[in-house]
Amino acid sequence: xxxxxxxxxxxxxxAGASRWLLRFTRAERSxxxxxxxxxxxxxxxxxxxxxPMLSTLVGRREMVKTVHVWCGFALPVPIVLGLLSRAFRxxxxxxxxxxxxxxxxxRRGDRRAVRGGRGILPVGKFNAGxxxxxxxxxxxxxxxxxxxxxxxxxxxxxxxxxxxATFVHDWLFLVVVLVTAGHLWEALRDxxxxxxxxxxRVDRGWAARHHAGWAARHQTDRASxxxxxxxxxxxxxxxx
Length: 240
What we know:
Elements: H1 4-18, E1 20-22, H2 26-50, H3 52-55, H4 61-74, H5 76-82, H6 86-95, H7 100-107, E2 114-115, E3 118-119, H8 128-152, H9 159-189, H10 191-199, E4 201-203, H11 204-210, H12 212-239
Helix pairs in contact: 2-4, 2-5, 8-9, 11-12
């Protein structure tokens, strides 16, 4: 028979575990961090190269250009390697699907309202804004990669291609800066979401408020696992 203090310790551990939900695996966080660092390196070096007020501060312009080019070509690498992760592939599927409540999330001004401790919309693991941001980021990486390749290796391309690539690359850089700034602003405003990306875990109450559909599925899966575990324990006791 377990000692009372042992049961108390187990209960405390269960209570602590039940407060948190696993949101991102280590592989998913590594992919995000690597992509973010490469993107920031591209944006900073681009600003040093193209903005007059900053370009005068750079003494070794060729080195900055080399860093910019290599970081740009490396941008898709973490994502491609991430396809080896089942959790990452599952999240890509979620980001690529728009459900009816996602369109409603975009239309409603009270999309973040909470009733009874839960969000009023059954938002999944990612809301519509996060899905649009992921789609834009993926598209921007591909366009930047293509135009950057033309600018880096201009010989096979005609003047119209080179001029068009430069125009698109430069203007898309400004759009990416604005979107990245907005993404960082939203992340810093929501410390629980930031904690989820840093540690992989989020508070269950936060999940219910901001991602009610995802939190409800977790609760259903947990209850199902508990029933299966109880059934297995019962069969074990009957056989013993």
